[in-house]
């Protein structure tokens, strides 16, 4: 079952270069930024026969801003939680813009997660759960070079950790290194992020009375 779970659940990759940040989650001092790809989860692929996480996800998203279970209103990601973001640049492009895009995008993602957690269990629950999650990973590619980046949450601030090169598509060893890191992030998506999301958000909100889930009570 675990092998099937890993194969089906994670990872799904969707082009997101037209996915704008929902204004409710955008930091007031920044302009909206986009990223090129998102790794996300199909709740319907969860092997737990006792719970229908796909129905839970749909029920929840119908109460959220823009009817989307993410910090973006992009239709292709409306009911499948984003775990990891990817930004691609040409080798001639500067790295600062990619860093700004990832930082702004994931700051909105932290705001979205915090809002859901507060709704599920209050401020104390949100603080504990965000500390438990720890990081949101990202990948930045610039030409042949692939690099790991991440953001963490410190209070209401998002901290961007830049970037650690881990492989190049211009060499066979580099390609193997990329495949290894991507596999680790796939495992993180399924074992860490999705389990965290279920425990701290879906399972708690699913127990709430229906009147507490009406749109507008977010």
Helix and strand arrangement:
Blueprint: H1 2-9, E1 12-15, E2 37-40, H2 53-61, E3 82-89, H3 95-133, E4 135-142, E5 145-154, E6 157-168, H4 172-205
Parallel strand pairs: 3-4
Antiparallel strand pairs: 1-2, 2-3, 4-5, 5-6
Q: What structural class do the secondary elements suggest?
A: alpha+beta
The outline comes out as: globular
Strand proportion: 15-25%
Query: In the residues, how many domains can be counted?
Result: 1
Largest β-sheet summary: 6 strands, mixed
Extended strand count: 6
Could you give the order of the helices and strands?
HEEHEHEEEH
Helix content: 40-55%
How far is the first residue's CA from the last residue's CA?
A: 36 Å
Uncertain residue ranges: 1-8
The largest beta-sheet arranges its strands as 1-2-3-4-5-6
Rounded to an integer, what's the Rg over CA atoms?
A: 17 Å
Count of individual helical segments: 4
Look at the structure and give the mean pLDDT. 83
What does this structure look like?
This protein has helices at 2-9, 53-61, 95-133, 172-205; strands spanning 12-15, 37-40, 82-89, 135-142, 145-154, 157-168. The protein is α+β, with helices and mostly antiparallel strands and 218 residues long. α2 packs across α4 (172-205) and α3 crosses α4 (172-205). It comes from Neonectria ditissima. Residues 16-194 form the PD-(D/E)XK nuclease-like domain. This is PD-(D/E)XK nuclease-like domain-containing protein. Residues 1-18 form the signal peptide.
């Amino acid at each position: 079952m675990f092998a099937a779970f890993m194969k089906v659940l994670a990872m799904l990759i969707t082009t997101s270069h037209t996915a704008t940040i929902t204004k409710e989650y955008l930091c007031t001092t920044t302009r909206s930024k986009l990223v090129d790809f998102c790794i996300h989860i199909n709740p319907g692929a969860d092997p737990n026969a006792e719970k229908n996480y796909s129905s839970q996800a749909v029920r929840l998203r119908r109460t959220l801003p823009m009817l989307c279970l993410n910090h973006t209103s992009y239709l292709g990601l409306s009911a499948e939680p984003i775990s990891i973001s990817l930004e691609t640049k040409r080798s001639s492009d500067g790295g600062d813009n990619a860093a700004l895009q990832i930082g702004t995008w994931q700051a909105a993602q932290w705001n979205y997660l915090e809002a859901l957690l507060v709704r599920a269990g209050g401020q104390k629950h949100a603080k504990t759960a965000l500390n438990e999650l720890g990081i949101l990973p990202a990948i930045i590619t610039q030409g042949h070079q692939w690099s790991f980046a991440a953001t963490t949450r410190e209070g209401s601030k998002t901290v961007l950790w830049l970037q650690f090169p881990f492989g190049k598509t211009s060499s066979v060893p580099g390609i193997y290194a990329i495949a290894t890191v991507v596999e680790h992030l796939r495992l993180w998506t399924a074992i860490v992020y999705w389990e965290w999301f279920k425990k701290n958000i879906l399972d708690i909100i699913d127990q709430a009375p229906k009147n507490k889930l009406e749109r507008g009570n977010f």
